[in-house]
Design brief:
Number of helices: 8
Radius of gyration: 17 Å
Strand order of the largest sheet: 3-2-1-4-5-6-7
Order of helices and strands: EHEHEHEHEHEHHHE
Distance between the termini: 35 Å
CATH topology: Rossmann fold
Structural class: alpha/beta
Bound molecules: nicotinamide-adenine-dinucleotide
Oligomer: single chain
């Protein structure tokens, strides 16, 4: 009975940023729990995307790659329209598309760096939330999980654009959760600590990166498999009375 609450059979999940890193792990987890997956990513059509699709397909549910640039309202709306056309509904949205931008202190920051990070990480999350919310209101049900970061609450030099975008996601989540509560749509944020992916692997190979890891209480980054339980939980009936919350998954890196 309790385990049935984690079953996602017959559900349809859209995962932005699903061609790489955390997005692949999220898609694998949801597919393993029974959901069909739509990957919305600018990298659709590249070998990395084909590789991600092959990994997800091994769980036997359907996987549809749909090219999408989350910074464009039309593209975000099209992603949802494609999902509805192919599957008839959208039960789960995971907003994992994101980028880090350049490491620049505020006094030296090129405004174009700020704009680029805000466009993908904050506006992109908003646009996909907006597109999914319209469908979920009609369906009277759904789940949205926005991916923020431990940077939402931990200041680090050079990361103002990223951290500001990610902390903006926390308030977007809470506001949307309040707006959608009566439609049986739960909206939550997942804030991961550091997991090695193409987004940050160069940094962790530097001396500064190695020093950072050795200063963390757990002395290690997260393993992508360690994200899977929480994403299934937040997407499933098991978490039906949780909304507007931020769940940190960092193994104590920032305690
Ligand atoms: N890796 C970490 O340690 C870590 C920690 C905290 C939060 N995060 C967050 O998790 C999310 C995924 O990060 P990751 O490490 O998997 O990065 P990644 O670079 O491996 O993957 C990001 C994906 O987003 C896609 N993307 C980028 N811009 C896009 C756009 N305009 N439209 C559509 N897709 C776009 C990329 O093509 C890529 O597939 C990001 O939001 C990131 O901020 C990552």
């Amino acid at each position: 009975m309790a385990l049935e609450m984690f079953d996602l059979s017959g559900k349809v999940a859209v995962v932005t940023g699903g061609c790489s890193g955390l997005g692949v792990a999220f898609s694998e987890a949801l597919a393993e729990a029974g959901a069909d997956i739509v990957i919305g990513d600018i990298m659709v059509g590249t070998p990395s995307c084909d590789e991600a699709c092959a990994t997800i397909q091994k769980f036997g549910t359907k996987v549809l790659p749909a090219k999408c640039d989350v910074t464009s309202p039309e593209s975000a709306d099209n992603l949802m329209a494609t999902t509805i056309k192919e599957f008839g509904r959208v039960d789960i949205l995971i907003n994992s598309a994101g980028l880090f931008g350049e490491n620049q202190k505020v006094a030296d920051m090129d405004p174009s760096n700020w704009d680029k990070v805000m466009a993908v990480d904050l506006k992109g999350t908003f646009l996909c939330c907006r597109a999914a919310a319209k469908e979920m209101i009609k369906q009277n049900g759904g789940r949205i999980i926005n991916i923020a970061s431990a940077s939402s609450f931990k200041a680090l030099p050079g990361m103002a654009a990223y951290a500001t975008a990610k902390s903006g996601i926390l308030m977007l989540t809470k506001t949307l959760a309040l707006e959608l509560v009566r439609y049986n749509v739960q909206v939550n944020t997942l804030s991961p600590g550091y997991f090695i992916t193409p987004l940050n692997k160069d940094f962790f190979e530097t001396e500064a990166g190695k020093r950072m890891v050795s200063n963390w209480p757990p002395r290690r980054p997260g393993n992508l498999d360690e994200l899977k339980g929480i994403i299934i939980y937040l997407s499933s009936p098991a978490s039906s009375f949780i909304t507007g919350q931020n769940i940190v998954i960092d193994g104590g890196q920032w305690l």
